[in-house]
Amino acid sequence: QLGPDHRRERQVDRAQQDQHPAVGQRRHVARVVADRRPEAEFDRPDAGLLPGPPDAVSPPLFSEVIAESLKRRIASRELAKSALQDAQSTTRIWCEVVGDRPLVSYRRSDVSRFQETLIKLPKHYWRSEAERKKPILQVIAEAESRNKNYARLQNTTVNKHLCVIAPFFEWAIKHEKMQEPDKPFWNGFML
What we know:
- This protein has 7 helices and 2 strands; from the N terminus they run H-E-E-H-H-H-H-H-H.
- The chain is mainly alpha-helical.
């Protein structure tokens, strides 16, 4: 039988486990071999799921790596602080259009979709607080519904957004955030 002090220590340990960042970590699907497991194990809600190895790390997402890139590039004066807001706007549009995914998952078709979306952007987007709360695809849809011939971004502004993305992938390769592809998929989209 456990004394009151021992029970209290166990409660503190459980509370610390609940606050530990590894609790709730992503689980990895393991192969289930039917002939090696009792039938009752398949009925459990977590059947076939095992915690990942302690050193297994999910690849970083685009938004995480570009935030690090912008911070480092500003610190090294490779990028002016004044360009930060534009870069953050570009990052938001990228993530809304093609998704915030691990860098290795992006393809040329993603950059193409991003460029096509930029070409459709109204000349004045996200000007008001209310507009900034809207997803970029909604801004485009509303502009198209008001007037099919609405004023769109100029090519120089489209290129400015593309000039955030292309150098970012170059930076990610240089800083070993991703492997260099056989052919850089982000080049050749400038207007």
